[in-house]
Amino acid sequence: MSTESATATATAPAAKGRNTKGGKGPRYARTGYLFVAPFMIAFTAMFLVPLAYAAWFSLFREQMIGGNVFVGLDNYTRAFTDPLLMAGLGRVALFFLIQVPVMMALALFFALALDSALVRLSRTVRLAIFMPYAVPSVVAALMWGFLYGPDFGPIAQFADRIGATAPDFLGADLMLGSIANIVTWEFTGYNMILLYAALRAIPVELYEAASVDGAGPWRIAWSIKIPLLRPAIVLCMVFSVIGSFQLFNEPSIMRTLAPNVIIAEYTPNLYAYNLAFVGQEYNYAAAVSFVLGFVIMAGSYLFMLATNRRSRS
Amino acid sequence: MSTVIEQPQAPAGPAARVRPRKPRPKRSTVLTVGMLAAAAYFLLPLVWLVIASTKSSEDLFSTFGLWFGGENSLFTNVKETFTVDDGAFGTWLGNSLLYAVASAAGGTFLAALGGYGFAKYRFKGNQAMFMGVLGAMAVPSTALAIPTYLLFSQAGLTDTPWAIILPSMASHPFGLYFMRIYADSAVPDSLIESGRIDGAGDFRIFFQVTGRLLMPAVATIMLFMLVQTWNNYFLPLIMLNDPDLYPVTVGLAAWQGQASTSGGASGDYLPLVVTGSLVSILPLIIAFLFLQRYWTTGLVSGSVKQ
Amino acid sequence: MNPRFRRRTGLAAALASPLAFGACARQRVDPPEQVSRAEIDEAMRTPTELNFWTWVPGIEKQVALFEEAYPDITVDVTNAAQGAGHYAKIRTALRAGRGAPDVAQIEYEMIPAFTITDHLLDLRPYGAGELEDRFVDWVWAQVSGPGGEVWAIPQDTGPMGMLYRADIFEAHGIEVPETWEAFAEAARALHRADPEVYLANFPPSQGAYFAGSLWQAGADPFAGSEGPVLNVDVTSEPVRRVAEYWAGLVAEGVVSTDPDFSDQWYQAANRGKYATWLTAAWGPVFLQSTAASTSGKWRAAPLPQWESGGPAAGNWGGSTNGVFNITEHPIQAAVFAQFINTDPECTKAMATEQFLFPPTKALLEDPEFTGMELEFYGGQKVNEVFAQISETVSPEFQWPPFNDQVRADYGATVGAAIAEGGDAAAALGDWRDRITAYAEYQGFTVEEAS
Predict the structure, then answer these.
(1) Which residues in chain B are closer than 8 Å to C81, comparing Cβ atoms?
(2) Is the pLDDT of residue A202 over 80?
(3) Correct CATH for C158-316+375-448 of 3.40.190.10, 1.10.3720.10, 3.40.50.300, 3.10.20.600
(4) Nearest residue of chain B to residue C78 (CA atoms)
(5) Which residues of B touch C262 (CB under 8 A)?
(6) Where is the signal peptide (chain C) (predicted)?
(7) Which pLDDT score, from 0 to 100, does residue B275 have?
(8) Is B146's CB within 8 Å of A131's CB?
(9) How do the residues of chain B divide into helix, strand and coil, expressed in percent and rounded to 5?
(10) What's the CATH number of domain C17-157+317-370, 3.40.50.2300, 3.40.190.10, 3.90.640.10, 3.40.50.261?
(11) Residues of chain A with C-beta less than 8 angstroms from the C-beta of C438
């Protein structure tokens, strides 16, 4: 929660020429409530109530033998010492450390290149890179699963033709990388568009002078544009923290291709799903989800804190 | 975060889309080639998908994946995709459309109203409520799946379209965030004031005057929610049991499961999964091409990968 | 009372305690001692709609025959999900107390998972007790409870056998191995002679295959478990023998470890990478449609044996129809489950058109079934081979009350270890530890074999 408050406080002074709120005085406060009421009611019913219920649910333990008992924080104690959950968290943390920097570097590079006006056909290129965002992750995983296929996948076929052996993309060593590639494929364009849009919003005057002084486009990108992009990059990173730690769809589809590599506890989200739907440990699954949510919040908060501090110094 | 704030302003002002630029620097061939190579990487799987959907199940495995096989089975495949299982695929597409449009329309309306309210009115709890909504984004959707399922089933809503539409409408807080920022900068207070002086009620002002200024943001959020719901897999997987209610993502995954577990049918289902995948992404790609004008400037909203 | 208000109070009660959901699920119909003929006749004349969840292709045929016999009953067939998803969906629906089917397809290995939570209806009062003589003994043992309950009606089975490529065997001078020892020898010889070909593929995450192998080896790891007491003996000598046998062959590199039923595996089967498929009675027809390009080259035989004494086999797959006790129409549901699995026309169609391997004595002795000659197997009477194997399946094999969890744990421990050719004995220990920890968490009293 704090991550967003940090975001918002950062935004407040930045909004230029913001007027005082239109609805001053108690008379309009009621109208204000009426405006936000539909959203808040829907949000409460569809989000907060289930969330509160899940939180409360996680304090129980229902057994096949012995029924249901209140166990307080036992499920959380178990979660924090659960080696399977920790292994899963470690895996997605590694995934985050490998995949996100690559994806962000690519997205940033593409955005800068497209913004620099150095590239021909930039509209087509931009669309092409963004296109995978329109592909459901289920379909993306199905496609890549086939492309990775040993023997019959195009990559393996190609390697075979030139007398080489394609790496075992679905093997235990490469699986995380293979999934990272799918996610990178899906979301680089999306992040690129975010950064590109942010770049378009930078007033030209800010680097016009530099241009006049003879700074080339690379130098302008490095010294002027990237520092200005920092808030947008941070935002993308926070979304990536959430996305990486919640990884579910891709591994769950890839599981049919390599069931012995993608085990039930491969990612924390997959683990929670299997706890609930295979092991019937519904209460513990809820606790695991909250621990995961907590890790994500802590992760994003730390990330914001780190970047804020650095930008201040 | 200033860039994020400024984003919505771009389409707001009439001149914002055309940014005055200095004479362009010389184009770089190296960079162009590099970018084209990158574009090729991003298009490659889609090219594969198009090629694969022209193949019979035999050719899928026996011919080179990135080139066409002996004979073109595209039409057979498409016909099969839409006729097998009593035309289940068409039903799934229709369901996806219904869920996506209904939740995008409803969700955007709620977000527009709410974002406007948060931006333009001062009331007790304004800030706190807003922050609460944003903080909720960090909670994984799986945490909610089972409790939501249990609550919904108590209300008799599981295995109905509502089980998808209602949660999709309200569980993407980013729409609200985006709308608030947008309304904040795009709607001048003076406009509201002058409406009030003319004696119009605040809701009338919103629906007749100020709401119109939010249209670019509305289009962006709508497209974004459309994508979210169309691509959603986890929620319908849990909520729906009746295959007649599946959206296309769950349906395709079910076919994929059938292709592998029922083996005998493997030869029959695999081209359907491939062709079905292609058909299922066409509507969104067309929507993106069609609404390019909006999202290139407006789609700053961040979605959670799911 | 206003129905809306009622719903609200129901929700409030549910929120007050998660137990309430369990309570909903356990609102079961008390089965009367024995339902009379008259009661059954009356129920079958009452217009009723039954919900039936199944994955069996073509089952509509049997449903139609049932609806013809009982025109007042309509059966709504739903294929909700494949594999594990099927049970997950049933369980969540049962748990929520709403939307669960009346009748469902249930594999033998999953029956205890639904009896431990008290969700299956004992079918004895509805006439199922008298069906015992019609079914093969070991199959009937699988659907029977310790108190003689009948938890489900068998539909098909999968006694395990070996399909082999006669052409490859011949080319390399391999005799059909009768013992596992001979099988291992042949595996080494074949792979040495042709590195592209493996005598067998061990599917590392196929827990059902492994369980069937244990069955054949005479292991019965959960024998004697009843109610809250769970016996776990997955480290016994026969279990270790099976696990170490495969881990050894994998370590030698003479057995492949592709996941079965994957694109890769189908392709390999067509290409002739595997010289045998260790499978079950449903395998022959399945293979015929998936490896069509190898027609005429395959033959069927019993599995190799651990001991040269009496032949033994295990079972892999097959399923039953069970009735959930939340049903509002227990009589109709029970009659339906019995009808489609015992009516001569229904069962004959299953065996000869849908190729489900029958569990009934009548069909296993029916020359029209056993005498079928399959082109794909060079005209061999494959059904006869498997009908004979079916007689060698031991009735002593018990499933744990949480088989899906045991399977998942198997994949993560033993399956993974075998796939790497690793230390199978250590992995069995890990498997036991996981099962024990889970069972204790679920409130079972675990008794490990010394």
Answers:
(1) 241, 254, 257
(2) no
(3) 3.40.190.10
(4) B242
(5) 260
(6) 1-22
(7) 93
(8) no
(9) 75, 0, 25
(10) 3.40.190.10
(11) 279
The answer to whether C99 contacts chain B (CB < 8 Å) is yes
Q: Does B106 touch chain C (CB under 8 A)?
A: no
ipTM at complex level: 0.84
Report the gap between the CA of A4 and the closest CA in chain B (Å).
Answer: 6
Phi-psi category of C173—alpha, beta or left, where left has phi over 0 and alpha has psi -120 to 50? Answer: left
Of C91, C267, C419, the CB nearest to A260: C419
What is the model's pTM? 0.86
Whole-angstrom CA distances from C51 to A255, B80, B123, B238, C302 are 31, 28, 52, 19, 39
Nearest C-alpha in B relative to C206: B261
Does residue C10 have a pLDDT over 60? Answer: no
- The neighbours of chain A, by the rule of 3 or more Cβ pairs under 8 Å, are B, C
Strand C48-53 and strand C73-78: the pairing is parallel
pLDDT, position C160: 97
Q: Which of B121, B129, B231 sits opposite A23 (nearest CB)?
A: B121
Where are chain A's structural domains? Answer: 75-312
Chain C within 8 Å of B242 (Cβ-Cβ)? yes
B249 in any annotated domain: yes
Kindly state the average pLDDT of the residues A92-115: 94
Contact call for C289 and B263, based on CB within 8 A: yes
> Would you say how long chain C is, in residues?
450
pLDDT interval class at B253 (50, 70, 90): confident
Does any domain span residue B290?
yes
Q: How high is the pLDDT of residue C387? A: 96
Angle at B287 between CA B281 and CA B293, to 5 degrees: 140
Candidates C11, C21, C92; nearest CB to B155: C11
Task: Compute the distance between CA of residue B219 and CA of residue B232 in angstroms, rounded to an integer.
Answer: 20
Total structural domains within chain B: 1
Q: What percent of chain A has pLDDT over 90?
A: 33
d(C-alpha A277, C-alpha A254), whole Å: 18
DSSP letters, C300-312, are EEEPPBSSSSS--
Name every chain C residue with its beta carbon within 8 A of the beta carbon of B151. Answer: 11
What class, spelled out in words, does domain A75-312 have in CATH? mainly alpha
